[in-house]
C-alpha cells in the first residue's frame, strides 16, 4: 500500500518537493508557498488506512493561506478520493 501511494504521489508531484520516510510510512508533498500535504499509512484491522492532512505552512501572511488556497481546500476531498480509487485499481490488478 505504501509503495503504491509513493508511486502515485511522485507521478502527481512533478515540479514540487516530496519527502518520503518509508520506515515511518509517511510522505510529505510541498504544495507551494502556503500548504503542505502529509500522508500517513497506518495499520488497521482491514489491512491499512491512509490519512491525508493539508497544513498551512505559510511563514508570512499565514492568514492568507486559506484564502489563496480556497480551490485546493475545496477540491481536496475529491482529489484524495480519486487517488484512492486509482491506487485500488492498480492494486487489484
The Rg value, from CA coordinates, equals 14 Å
Percent strand equals: 25-35%
Q: Please indicate the count of domains.
A: 1
Query: What integer is the average pLDDT?
Result: 91
For the largest beta-sheet, the strand count, sense and barrel status come to: 4 strands, antiparallel
| Widest sheet, order of strands | 1-2-3-4
Number of strands: 4
**Tally the helices: what do you get?**
3
Binned, the helix content reads: 40-55%
| Helix and strand sequence | HEEEEHH
Distance between the terminal alpha carbons, to the nearest Å? 13 Å
Question: Would you kindly provide a brief summary of this structure?
Answer:
The chain has 93 residues and is of the alpha+beta class. It is built from three helices and four strands, in the order αββββαα.
